[in-house]
Amino acid sequence: MREVTPTRSTAIELADERKLMRQGYEFLDEKRMLLATEMLAQLKIYQQRADELIAATKQAAAALATAVERHGLDQLQLYPKPPAPGLPPPKRSLFLGLVMLSAGKPPQPGEAAQAIDPSPEAKACRAVFETLLWASADLGLRAGNLNRLAREYRRTERRARALEKVLLPEVQQTIKMIDEQLDMMEREEAVRTRWSGAVGAAT
After folding, report:
1. pLDDT tens for residues 110-157?
2. The domain spanning residue 25 has which CATH number?
3. Is 112 part of a structural domain of the chain?
4. Is residue 2 part of a domain?
5. Quick one: pLDDT at residue 11?
6. What percent of the chain has pLDDT over 70?
7. Rounded to the nearest 5°, which phi and psi values hold at 78?
8. 3-state secondary structure of 81
9. Mean pLDDT score of the chain, rounded to an integer?
10. How many domains would you assign to the chain?
């Protein structure tokens, strides 16, 4: 409990402080709920993207096996490759001041030099691995979103709990102590006044 001078003005100041603390707690509690809701939404998207990445990985493995069967491993390694696909800058949005990122749309496959023995199997293999690269980048960005949301949630939770469990009870207890001391002082003053009146009347 903080040490204060038991006066009416101090009690009023503490009451105003308690009101502000309650408003702050309500704001933090609402923010905490919004963060939790957004985390669930982002987690759902993350799980969808993770499933898509697993499916893309299986598809890439199957396409690679088909291309190797068509060309052989040695010839496939010599197959002309396109320029490395340049992923576009991540899409940015804000949620409660936090940056949310996503990979946007998959990039268009680049043009490679003409192969000596072109085949749809090799072309499909190249395309599915480019999609796999985009899916991996998007999943990483979504994981970053979840980390930022979780970090902000923990920070908000600590502040809300500090107000609810420590600061507000401390102020409430201090106000109660001041009120009790002021009531005691008023009773003592009333007793002194009556005593002085009684003594004056007797003399």
Report:
1. 555 565 667 788 888 888 888 888 888 899 999 999 999 999 999 999
2. 1.10.287.3240
3. yes
4. no
5. 85
6. 85
7. -90, 0
8. coil
9. 84
10. 1
What average pLDDT does the segment 167-177 reach? 90
- Alpha carbon of residue 104 to chain centroid: 21
Q: Measure the CA–CA gap between 129 and 84, rounded to whole angstroms.
A: 11
Which pTM was predicted?
A: 0.74
Dist CA 14 CA 16 (whole Å): 5
Residue found by looking up tokens 């985390």 in the block: 39
Sign of CA dihedral 193, 195, 201, 203: negative
How is residue 150 written in tokens?
A: 């979780």
Looking up tokens 């009684």 gives 198
CA dihedral 92, 93, 95, 100 (to 10 degrees): -30
Among 139, 143, 121, which Cα is nearest to 60's? 121
Q: Give domain status of residue 1, yes or no.
A: no
Domain span at residue 25? Answer: 8-198
CA distance 79 to 69: 14
| Position 3 in a domain | no
